What does this fold into?
Amino acid sequence: MLSLYLAAIDTAEEKSKFELLYQRYRDIMYWAAYGIMKDPHQAEDVVSQSFFKVIDHLNRITDVDSRQTKAFLVTITEHTAIDCYRKRKRERTVSMEDWEAVSSYTEEFEENDVISCINSLPVNYAVVLKLRYSQGYSDEEIAQILHITKENVRTRVKRGKRKLEEMLRERGIEF
It folds into this structure.
């Protein structure tokens, strides 16, 4: 794994600095991630992502053995773990019983009707609905992508859902 990180670094000096960081702090970073994620595999993923972020900020690290460096690496790891945790929390899991209920409900109408209704919405509503519900982006992330405010995103989602509901009712799809 270390060779993968080193391939992303240009100079020999930065490579040796990164190797020292990796050897000294990977376990500390793992336990920081594990404390938030509560899953060993996800903690390892967080540490991996964190080391790639460290590569982007190697120029900020002057002394590998300092308390500031340790705090910096743990902070990067904790922030990465929190982001991953939030993303995981946004992803919904459905029990088998719920899945059976949903699948029998969705058989009552064609999925293509919903998709065609979404596609026929005004673009500003369709885009935010697709980003939020299909791609799983948060309001803040959508605001950054579209260069609008979070309040504007929420308003577009609300209005888009209302228009979508009207269109589905016109087609005889009740929910």
